[in-house]
Write a structure and sequence with these properties.
alpha/beta; 6-stranded antiparallel beta sheet; 5-stranded parallel beta sheet; 13 helices; 17 strands; extended; P-loop_NTPase; coiled coil; Rad50/SbcC-type AAA domain-containing protein
Amino acid sequence: MKRLTIKKLIVISQSESRSLEVPFENGLNIILGGNKTGKSSIIKSIFTTLGCECRSIETDWKKLISLYLLFFNYGEKQLCIIRQGKKFQIFEYFGYTYSCVMETESFHEYSNCLMDILEINMPCISKDGKRFNVTPPLLFRFQYIDQDDGWSKIGDSFSNVGYIKDWKANTNKYVCGYLDDTYYKLQAQKVEQTLIKDDKKKELDYNKSFVSRISSTLTQIEDMQSIDEVTTNIDSLLAKSEELRKMQFSYNAEMTVLENDIYVNQHKLYIVEHNLSETKKDIEYAMNQDDELVCPICGTIYANGLDEQLNLTSDYAHCEKLIEELKNSISVSGGKLEELKEKHRVASLEIQSIEQQIKNSQELLSYSSFYKNKGQYEIYESCKGQLDAIQEEIDSYVSKIALIDDKINEQKSKERSKNIREDIENYCRTLADAINLPKTFIQLRDFVQIVNRTGSETPRLVYMYQSALYLYNLNRAYSPFNFYVVDTPNQQGQDADNLGSIFKSLELFLSDEGQVIVGTERETGMEQKASNVITLTEKRRCLNNINYEKHLELFEELQKAAISWREHNYKMKSRHSIEEF
């Protein structure tokens, strides 16, 4: 494998006719700029171009930038990725000569092409069982500490990874070299074989049910005396069903009458209860007046003797009796209505049962005719034989899965796991010394540091581990993991001493064998030793129009190469279609 080195990033805003070119070197690169100068946006743009969706990125920046161009080397190859919305293009170049490698709006097609270039074959499985090669956000998850989200969790700065099965555990083991391409190929084969086996099992269960139904039908056909007998039975069932439907119609008519009676009586009851309430108020008023009373509404004078008061009381008693009669009538009608509803329900169930009997009898007639013409057991025996064949296939897949499991277990070495863990822990100790972190905090699980501290110790644990992993991979092998990007926190409670410890550790990242990009608001003290220092001064003004035309010309030159690639592909497809015809 080769080393991956980022050479430069170009971002272009066509809406503002402005752009920015940021060069990078081997060794330590420092992007120095205050808050809101575009430092973090530039860093995030590196990973955006690669297809890694950062969890936090300024909306204004996303709207502003229309084109991302990332130039990088991998071994002897010089490459460029262009991202424009959902479209990805990959180019290889030598000097000023560009050739298009691929162009697509399919993220996985782009990922597969990039992984071929990086010579990586780590098959992954999505949660719905689809297989594809590892994607950039999975591959580079440990290469970046995000200013906003990266200082609280390890390797969790990208959002487009969650749909992949066991994405954390798999990349943990791959990035540190414990499990290689062979293991993940076997793992993917196992998942594929398991999915096929499960599908065959479903097919077996369905066919067993089908055979069972045929067996039951054959038994009924053998017991059936004659077709005429079944036909007569169907006619009888149809007649009974029609009679039940007539009864249902009669029930519906009676229920409609009862529902109308109940509605009318409920309305009467409402009126009478209202009158009763008003009569009660009149009685109470009259009892508290003299022999004459004055209407409080119209002012009319009425006699209020004993006879008048008795008449009011008589009206009240009449209302009470009428209410009782209405309630009894509503109750009786309601009871009758419920009885009719129950009769209607029972009739519906009986009709359903009859219809199923008719359907079964009709199927018997159909099966009987077929089996008498073709032979009663021909299909039955064929289906039973198919069951045995499917079971043999399932047994075959079970054996294949067992063999793959044996090969997978051979890939896992406890001794190698122990050695890798110890090596990473040694680099963690080196970093812990540099940033004044107790070595007792070092605790790896599945080759990754456990983050179980609070306050300023949490970001330092994250920084310690990811920096140690970078140094471990830098000395372990040539690989795509030989670059590392750190965007220092600006709102994580970092005091001067804490940031000073992190800046002091940058001494460990000066080797030209790798590449480290650090974004910071404060000077680190390593600017003189760094290979490259980019200083941003104006707020929200990192873009300019100095090289906009030049950058646009470069983009257009690359698009000419993409057009040639598309024309070549079209000709090849047309020729292939003609040959097939």
